[in-house]
Amino acid sequence: MPTYDTLKHALRIVSLATPLLALTGFAAHQPSSGSLAQAAASSAPVEAPAPAIPVATPDAPAYGWRRPVPSSTSPLAGPGAAAARVENNGQQVLDWESGAGKSYLIPALEVTGFLIGLNIFDRIFLDDDRTGEGGRRTYYSTTPTTWHHLRDQNWGFDQDPFNVNQFGHPYQGATMYGLARSCGLGFWESWAYANVGSFAWKMAGETDRPSINDMVTTGNSGSLLGEALFRMSQLVLKEEQGPPDFWHEAAAAAISPPTGFNRLAFGDRFKTPFPSHDPATFWRVRAGYMFNSEDDLTTDFQMSYGLPGQPGYSYRRPLDYFDFQISGLARSNNPIGNVLLRGLLYGKEYQAGEDYRGIWGIYGSYDYISPTIFRVSTTALSLGTTAQYWLSSRLALQGSVLAGVGFGAAGKTPTSDGQRDYHYGVTPQGIMSLRLLYGTRLALESVLRGYYVSGTGSDNAEGDEAIMRSNTNLLYRIFGRHGISLQYIHAVRNAQYGNLPARHQTDGTIGIFYTFLGDTHLGAVQWRDSSSD
């Protein structure tokens, strides 16, 4: 697999999303109390509820910056568009509800072309990269090397750097997933393309031994990441006020490059708006300074999508709810600090009384935590719940509790020169997240994560690591969508490897941030009459 330098371009594309989001803005959907009452009273199924358009006030500016364009100007916009999507100037156009216009062939060709292009790129720019098996050039694969891999199926664990295996591979998988998803395929169909593409790369893209860890992260973590990026790009493209302009198209392409590619390459065929069904969302962008043993300038972006309690919204598709966060550091050798993603794969809504709404089910998660001192990354399935409880008319409590098992990598392990400096293994893990919201001014959030990276399923069965990480953040909204945040992160690592002395490490980091908010309600979902208490 390419070294970290070959992935810099992909990392820059991801990092571009943060400033573009601040410039363009996602559409924020928070129904008024009147619309909530109407939604609660109606028993008719809601296919795609029309988003409420907030009214700008001195303390709550309008959320979108698009120029008003009548929806009738576009044959692909408006509630009656389904009939118009069958053909456009003789070209079949995608219809997400019926599946008409989707393609299985186009993404198959695109994934193949992507892998061939990646192999050619690596041959040119990584000509000196060699395997440990006879010193062969890693990317000079041939028909005999491909047949050797297919015949022997001699799987193992590779020695690539942590950030390549745990971030570079998932992003490669997200690219293959996005090529299929943006051609109209569903989550599981696109997941299959990402995993088949990963297998094809291990058989025919490299000459070294195919690696188990790559198959876990590329197709599975990549699919979760790809779906989250696809959904966020569709929010930017949401056609509330006419077709998206150049800047919204550019922002969507920065978030999900495969989506941007297919929208550009195939005209109107794949430009049909994805039916998001009006999820309750909250996002924020932060920029600030982290004080620890090695001070860092940092930026991060976080989005919660499909928060429980939105009237008329249901959870019928994978990742109709997800929580996503990515942070960047001002370091050339470690520009991506964290990628944290959890999403509901299969579940249902529930409620308790008038003040509590929640969802529960099976979640998929992809975590990549890479600070200076030590690291951990996992791909996991968990059972859990996410909910919101109105403690009073102005005080809301949101939270998630998940427990499950995955396959992870962790630590900085003692190794010989040229060997992998981290440890793989089956990883039981859990997360508890609480967020207390006071009106439209204050938000206090605390997240506790725990990982146990065992030796089971690894090439180093004698080692294990236990890692705990807590993150507490206090946000104060100063005016409009502008605020300030204080953050404290505390992490503990206990590691044991064979006869080596046990290691105990702790790390504490304090941060201060300017925060730009997606809206002024701080993510609280209001399904009840605002006068109730």
Can you describe this structure?
This protein is an alpha+beta fold. It is built from ten helices and 14 strands. The strands form two sheets. The protein has a twelve-stranded antiparallel beta barrel. It has a two-stranded antiparallel sheet with strand order 1-2. A hairpin with a 6-residue loop joins β7 and β8. α6 crosses α7, α6 packs across α8 and α7 crosses α8. The longest helix has 25 residues. The protein is globular. The N terminus is likely disordered.
Annotate the secondary structure layout.
Blueprint: H1 8-24, H2 33-41, H3 81-84, E1 87-88, E2 91-92, H4 105-125, H5 143-152, H6 162-181, H7 187-204, H8 212-236, H9 246-255, H10 257-265, E3 281-291, E4 296-305, E5 322-329, E6 336-352, E7 356-369, E8 376-390, E9 395-410, E10 423-438, E11 442-453, E12 463-479, E13 482-497, E14 503-517
Antiparallel strand pairs: 1-2, 3-4, 3-14, 4-5, 5-6, 6-7, 7-8, 8-9, 9-10, 10-11, 11-12, 12-13, 13-14
Helix pairs in contact: 1-9, 4-7, 6-7, 6-8, 6-10, 7-8, 8-9, 9-10
Short description:
This protein is α+β, with helices and mostly antiparallel strands and 533 residues long. Helices cover 27% and strands 32% of the residues.
